[in-house]
């Protein structure tokens, strides 16, 4: 598929508000002592319809709140309980299947976000990241680093495992001054 | 010290961030095979370098960088994220990278700081 056609497809996908995967297939072959190592990288980002295409809304000028910090901190233990609860209830009996788990990750992330929103913590932005994987003979390492205000921002994380799959849930709470 | 100009709100640019991250990954695990004892160090380095490069862009954002490195064994992996934020200023981008022996998935979330 030519680059132009790919971009057009991506733009159309963006308008429909679905995941756009711009495959920039840089296939580099590195010759090292006779062995060829290939690497492929792809980039994807989710867009709301008309996010980049419309004229950007003028930046909202916020009034001074005179607040030095959040009135209520991000409740890490409560969020931890939500994660435990949601992961267990959705995945306890499930077997790993590609289609099911693809849908499940999206559903679980939406559900967790809704429940954290229900906690009504003012001025906090919420990011939920869910990964579901098949249990095989592989090894996996996940790491996360954040540049934020350590006094106000925090995260909560939980892992779940059953006989055929594992799930990792990360919730980050960022205070918006 | 860099100067931030209030009222200069720009939305997150995912392309720039993804290029940045791709280069970091290539530089760190570009031509190597999966190795159990090194993977800990790799994830830490990838995340640190990506974060440093993103900060060098000098934009008024708080960043969250998440990296997962997985050995290739035929097993599947799905990742999804759901975010409650200001869609005009905040954004995210995910970079998937693979070579012969492993997958690497890096997610970057950028939350605007109001100055």
UniProtKB/TrEMBL annotation, chain A:
Family membership: Belongs to the dynein light chain Tctex-type family.
Cross-referenced PANTHER family: DYNEIN LIGHT CHAIN TCTEX-TYPE 5 (PTHR21255:SF64), T-COMPLEX-ASSOCIATED-TESTIS-EXPRESSED 1/ DYNEIN LIGHT CHAIN (PTHR21255)
Name of the protein in its database record: Tctex1 domain-containing protein 1
Naturally occurring in which organism (per UniProt): Coilia grayii
UniProtKB/TrEMBL annotation, chain B:
RNA-binding as UniProt keyword: no
Keyword Cell division appears in the UniProt entry: yes
Keyword terms of this UniProt record: Cell cycle, Cell division, Centromere, Chromosome, Cytoplasm, Cytoskeleton, Dynein, Kinetochore, Microtubule, Mitosis, Motor protein, Nitration, Nucleus, Transport
GO BP annotation list: cell division; microtubule-based movement
Annotated localization: Chromosome, Centromere, Kinetochore; Cytoplasm, Cytoskeleton; Nucleus
Single GO MF annotation: dynein intermediate chain binding
GO cellular component: cytoplasm; cytoplasmic dynein complex; kinetochore; microtubule; nucleus
Classification via InterPro entries: Tctex-1-like, Tctex-1-like_sf
Quaternary state and interactors: Homodimer. The cytoplasmic dynein 1 complex consists of two catalytic heavy chains (HCs) and a number of non-catalytic subunits presented by intermediate chains (ICs), light intermediate chains (LICs) and light chains (LCs); the composition seems to vary in respect to the IC, LIC and LC composition. The heavy chain homodimer serves as a scaffold for the probable homodimeric assembly of the respective non-catalytic subunits. The ICs and LICs bind directly to the HC dimer and the LCs assemble on the IC dimer. DYNLT1 and DYNLT3 compete for association with dynein IC (DYNC1I1 or DYNC1I2).
PANTHER family: DYNEIN LIGHT CHAIN TCTEX-TYPE 3, T-COMPLEX-ASSOCIATED-TESTIS-EXPRESSED 1/ DYNEIN LIGHT CHAIN
Function as written in the Swiss-Prot or TrEMBL entry: Acts as one of several non-catalytic accessory components of the cytoplasmic dynein 1 complex that are thought to be involved in linking dynein to cargos and to adapter proteins that regulate dynein function. Cytoplasmic dynein 1 acts as a motor for the intracellular retrograde motility of vesicles and organelles along microtubules. Probably binds BUB3 as part of transport cargo. Required for the efficient progression through mitosis.
Family from the record: Belongs to the dynein light chain Tctex-type family.
Name of the molecule in the record: Dynein light chain Tctex-type 1
Organism: Alosa alosa (allis shad)
